[in-house]
Amino acid sequence: MEYFLHILILIGIYIILSESLNLIAGYTGLLSIAHAAFYGVGAYVAALMALHLHSPFLVNIVCAVILCGLLGALVGIPSLRIRDDYFVIATFAFQVITFSVLNNWVSFTGGPMGLPGIPQPTIFGLKITSHLGFLLLIVILCSLILWISHRIVKSPFGRVLKSIREDEVFTQAVGKNVAAYKVLVFIIGAGMAAVAGVMYAYYISFIDPTSFTVMESIFIISIVIIGGAGNLWGPVVGAVVLVVLPELLRFIGLPSSMAANVRQILYGGLLVAFMMWRPQGFLGKYAFQSGETRE
Amino acid sequence: MSADWLEVQKLEKSFDGIRALADFSCSLRQGEILGLIGPNGAGKTTLLNVISGFLAPESGRALFRGKTLLGLPPHKIATTGIARTFQKLRLIRQVSVLDNVLLSFRNQPGERLSNVFFRWKNSKEQEAANRKEAMSLLEEAGLTEKANEPAEDLSYGQQKLLSLVCCLAAKGDLLLLDEPVAGIAPEMIEKILGIIRNLPNKGKSVILIEHNLDAMMQVCDRVIFMDAGAKLSEGTPEEVRDDPRVIEAYID
């Protein structure tokens, strides 16, 4: 039972991560490989605050969201001035830098040893200790994130995001400040990723930099692409499939030394297969593509 | 509000040493339709790109209703009352025809992030009003049945018509139209020219680029013949048509 709840909690965390990336990459067409960095910063902010300041959960989550939003602006404003492949590389650089900082600033982040002993969260005097409690919290946060995303993509604001993905020049010509929209959506996405990071830190109660590598960013991108970029429910489907599928491998009795490798092969194979035969993912209407190929 | 509605002075623009605009000046009155003709590479599209802010000239001035345009980004210029179409047709191809028109309305409250979550009523009312107006624009253009189809499913001519409808939704007072009737069926040409011809009645001005000289004769009040970035001839369509330099250039 605990194992089952654990899987559901993981799915919830990845829904938050991939839905926030969906806003950036799926709707606005900005392929960012920095998502695990925002996820990680969110986790570290909450963990450090909880460990050193003993501040309550709600304060920590708000601080993590705001800080990641600011970081999103800091990264977004310069890197959004460059386009397509160059943008991808700029976000990649940020991802690598973030990992290095987490891994090497030993006195502050604990370096490779990570931060153990993150206390269990308390909300309005209610201590969350059980898996069920965490699941409930995750469901609430997931719903909130999905609702916000829904409001955004169904609004005229979202219409501008989609048109930026399709044709930036036309979008400028009809009087939209494309650069401002890109930075805004990047900030929103970074802030949402922080929520997932905070939940991860509190749930596992131990974080180390290896959870926030570029591989993690690519995993989140895979969820968005396989689920269906630019579709509100795409990341939900993608997260369920990509979290559950490797778990199934456990049950076919592979030796553990092989299971991890088979997992990687599976992700790679899935991604290639989707790009070839169903580039729009399970639910998406639009094939995911970068600006370059669209021209 | 007459002579200097749009004023373009001494524009210079070169690409790799080739002058696309060479000391180019012109002006436009309110309610006037100005045609630009000339061989490929004469600088016609460059002129539209400079006026709409997509290209920065090396020197010169451009004023619209007394407001300087140069140095403003394209989206700011688009909100001063200038709307344009593109030679290589641009639309949001994968969203519906109606959404393309809705996108074209300027300064929508619902496009501000804060209004996604607050003051829903205000944005909703504006959106409903825009939707109504968009539908009536599409009806005038005869695109009502296509309203919910993706823009890419329209015929080429209908797409050109749609990009003109988008300019109308923008409530632009100056329309920059880059080859609005090139490569489309004769009935569609008639329809688009009909809409363009009616624009001055609404107080709007047009700068029109077109290779189809017959079309130019029908709608333009004045025509400028350009070559190598410079103005070679200017006058009524008939005057320019009969100018020996123009005849020579077109025979070449």
How would you portray this structure in words?
- The complex is a heterodimer of chains A (295) and B (252).
- Chain A is an all-alpha fold and 295 residues long.
- Chain A has one domain (2-209).
- Helices cover 74% and strands 1% of the residues of chain A.
- Chain A contains 13 helices and two strands; from the N terminus they run αααααββαααααααα.
- Chain A has helices spanning 2-27, 35-53, 57-79, 84-104, 106-109, 131-154, 156-166, 168-173, 178-204, 214-227, 234-251, 256-277, 291-294, and strands at 122-123, 126-127.
- A two-stranded antiparallel ribbon of chain A has the order 1-2.
- In chain A, α2 packs antiparallel against α3 (57-79) and α2 runs parallel beside α4.
- Chain A starts with a helix and ends with a helix.
- Mean pLDDT of chain A is 90; it is low at 290-295.
- Chain B is α/β, with parallel strands linked by helices and 252 residues long.
- Chain B has two domains: 1-81 and 172-252, P-loop containing nucleotide triphosphate hydrolases (Rossmann fold, 3-Layer(aba) Sandwich), CATH 3.40.50; 90-164, no CATH class.
- Chain B has ten helices and ten strands.
- Chain B has helices at 44-51, 74-78, 97-104, 113-117, 120-141, 156-169, 186-198, 213-219, 237-242, 244-251; strands spanning 6-15, 18-28, 33-37, 59-64, 67-68, 82-84, 174-178, 205-209, 222-227, 230-235.
- Chain B has a six-stranded mixed sheet with strand order 6-7-8-3-9-10, with helices on both faces. Chain B has a four-stranded antiparallel sheet with strand order 2-1-4-5, covered by helices on one side.
- The longest helix of chain B is centred in the middle third of the chain and has 22 residues, at 120-141.
- The mean pLDDT of chain B is 90.
